[in-house]
């Protein structure tokens, strides 16, 4: 049986739209897009989604464990062998406190691709495909609006950059924003229907 590793942030973890801070919630497995995509493919699944994770930044509020580079390296050394890896990051990188441009965010994601596609980890797993997913653009709404002030425009600019990046690395690409939108409740997280739609898009891209 093939194995899929899904690496990302809260939208890979399965966090529902937030209406108040300080409450931990997570959709059950049969709602979350990674589980649904793996079930559609008939593959086993390793979920590696962490709310707040960035592609490259140590978060001054949430801590250094939010930096995706060491986390991806650990995940790819902890699990396996895998046959496919999805990377969907960039949402948290557009937060105001990082002051990052879309190009800088794409650069951080390039580092993740270079890590995953490098000889060490490809050899360790016997080779695996990578699907780079551009997350749906954020909307500055709800209780997270202040955190993402100025982030909507940055996130809209990210997908074309990531599409070009994927071509430069000869890897698979999916623009999630062409299939789904974030919930207007908080402008960041996904509804159950969006998880279902994204699952089908991911499965189709990997099939």
Key structural traits:
5-stranded parallel sheet; 7 helices; 207 residues
Kindly describe this structure:
By secondary structure, the protein is an alpha/beta fold. It has a single domain, classed as 3-Layer(aba) Sandwich (Rossmann fold), CATH 3.40.50.1110. Helices cover 39% and strands 13% of the residues. The chain contains seven helices and five strands. Strands 2-1-3-4-5 form a five-stranded parallel beta sheet, sandwiched between helices. Helix 4 runs parallel beside helix 6. The longest helix has 18 residues. The two termini are 14 Å apart. The mean pLDDT is 97.
What's the CATH architecture?
A: 3-Layer(aba) Sandwich
Unreliable residue stretches: none
Q: SS-based structural class?
A: alpha/beta
What is the residue-averaged pLDDT? 97
Number of E strands: 5
Instruction: Tell me the distance between the termini.
Output: 14 Å
Radius of gyration: 16 Å
Per DSSP, what share of the residues sits in E-state strands of 2 or more residues? 5-15%
């Amino acid at each position: 049986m093939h194995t899929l590793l899904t690496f990302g942030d809260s939208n890979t973890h399965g966090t529902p739209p937030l209406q108040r801070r300080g409450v931990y919630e997570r959709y059950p497995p049969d709602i979350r897009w990674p589980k649904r995509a793996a079930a559609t493919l008939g593959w086993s699944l390793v979920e590696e989604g962490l709310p707040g994770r960035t592609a490259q930044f140590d978060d001054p509020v949430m801590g250094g464990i939010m930096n995706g580079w060491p986390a991806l390296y650990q995940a790819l050394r902890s699990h396996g062998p895998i046959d496919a890896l999805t990377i969907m990051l960039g949402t948290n990188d557009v937060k105001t406190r990082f002051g990052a441009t879309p190009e800088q965010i794409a650069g951080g994601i390039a580092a993740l691709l270079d890590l995953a596609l490098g000889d060490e980890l490809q050899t360790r797993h016997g080779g695996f495909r990578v699907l780079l997913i551009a997350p749906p653009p954020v909307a500055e709404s709800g209780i997270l609006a202040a955190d993402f002030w100025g982030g909507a425009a940055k996130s809209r600019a990210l997908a074309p950059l990531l599409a070009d990046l994927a071509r430069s690395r000869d890897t698979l690409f999916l623009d999630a924003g062409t299939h789904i939108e974030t919930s207007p409740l908080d402008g960041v997280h996904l509804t159950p229907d969006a998880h279902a739609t994204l699952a089908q898009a991911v499965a189709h891209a990997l099939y």
